[in-house]
Amino acid sequence: MPGASADGSSSYQPSGGAPSKSLKISAVLNDLAIINRRLTHAETLEVQHAQQLRVLEAKFLEQIGAMQCQCDSQLKEAQQAWNTEFESLKHMIECQRSVRVSNASSGTDEEGMDEKLEKDVERMEKSAAAYGDNGLKAVVRMVFQTLMGVGKLTADTLPAYPKDGATWPVDEATKERLLRFRWAETHQHVNNHASITRIFQYIRKNGVSICPASGPALRNISDEDLHDRVVKKYQDLQQNIRRTVTVLPGAETDGTEAAIAPSAPIKFPSRAKTQSRACGYKDEKYRVALTESLMSPDEDEVDDANKKTGHFISHAATYWSTLFLEAVDDAEDPSPPATGKYTVRVKGDARDLPLVAAKKIENRAHRWMVSHRGKPPSQNGSKTKEFQGIC
Fold first, then answer.
1. Fewest beta carbons within 10 Å, which of 30, 125, 183, 285?
2. Per-residue model confidence (pLDDT) at position 278
3. Sheet of 308-314, strands arranged across
């Protein structure tokens, strides 16, 4: 009989009855198998984590050792640098002590140095005052007339530079060659520079005998300021010619001397112009205006009719670096004042100006501002000075 057990009882259970004991045991065994698999997986993960932890510990110890070695090396280098700096300071102190002992033995002290500095400042002030002296102006004018062999320095009497192959004019009394200038060129031209140097030397040697009234000014003025005064006189004569004539007197227009139109005036910036006014501005607040700076030399802009437009033309020096010019261009322009007293500046062509030398630290420029592209003295005839900058 189907469904009968060995003892004759039936094992058939209706569908809605309670589960049998065998099914419960099977479910428990199945759950135990799942738990065993999870335990095995957990044990495997624990082993892997332990291995990773050992690897991390090894790397950590390795990095700690490397950092310790690096710190020891840096500490050793810092100690060596400190010892070197200490020895340098010690040597500097010993040198200063030796200088003090030497100064004390020779009778010089700080007060003497201050006195020397005051004398230098006084000498510079006297030179600036002598620059505008009328006696000095007179002797410069007279030497120009004497060495050029002319009776007056007007535009119609100033001689031109001799043509190639022409006989050079000479002084009938001394038989020496008379001075001639290339009026179409700047004072830095090699020929003009030689003539200006000759005038400068002549004034230093014979100026007092030619014009006794210039004696005090010649004793007080420095060589640099006297040279600037001679250059200023040449520039004034050149401007007079440019304003009055279209072609230089006796000059060729085939390239030897360029034609000059009155509608193209030229203006030269001059530090001596401000120095000549120093005698009238003794107050400390005016000193800034009498100090050379890196500002562009300005000149009045004129139109085709040779009339001023009310604008200034700023000319950059060729020795300024591109980085410096870009920094100036990037700077924000100031807003015009409410009063309306504001002069617009327009960009002009670059000028081949000589490098200047600053005597004071506060007046010096940084090296990144200068490109050292100026012409050497052998090419432009200028006695160029070395530019002193600070980093």
1. 285
2. 47
3. 298-302, 308-314, 345-347
Cβ atoms of 223 and 197 within 8 Å: the answer is no
Q: How far apart are CA 272 and CA 291, in angstroms?
A: 10
Task: State how far the alpha carbon of 63 is from the alpha carbons of 66, 239, 375, in Å.
Answer: 5, 79, 59
Six-digit token string for 223: 């060589």
Q: Which of 153, 211, 206, 217 is nearest to 179 (CA)?
A: 153
Residue type, 44: T
Give the closest residue to 216 by CA, choosing from 303, 95, 127, 296: 127
Residue tagged 């022409």 (tokens):
166
Residues 105-154: tens digit of each pLDDT: 555 555 666 677 788 888 888 899 889 899 999 999 999 999 999 988 98
What is the average per-residue pLDDT within 312-321? 80
The tokens describing 130, both together, are 């002598």
- With contact defined as beta carbons under 8 Å apart, do 280 and 252 qualify? no
Residue 345 is encoded by which pair of tokens? 């500046």
Q: How far apart are CA 374 and CA 384, in angstroms?
A: 9
What pLDDT is stored for residue 300 in this prediction? 80
∠ CA 140-144-150, nearest 5°, is: 140
Sign of CA dihedral 249, 254, 257, 260: positive
User: For residue 293, what pLDDT is reported?
Assistant: 62
Render pLDDT for 276-286 as a digit per residue (tens, 0 to 9).
Answer: 454 555 566 56
Average pLDDT of the residues of the chain: 75
Taking CA atoms, 325 is separated from 98, 368, 369, in Å, by: 46, 11, 8
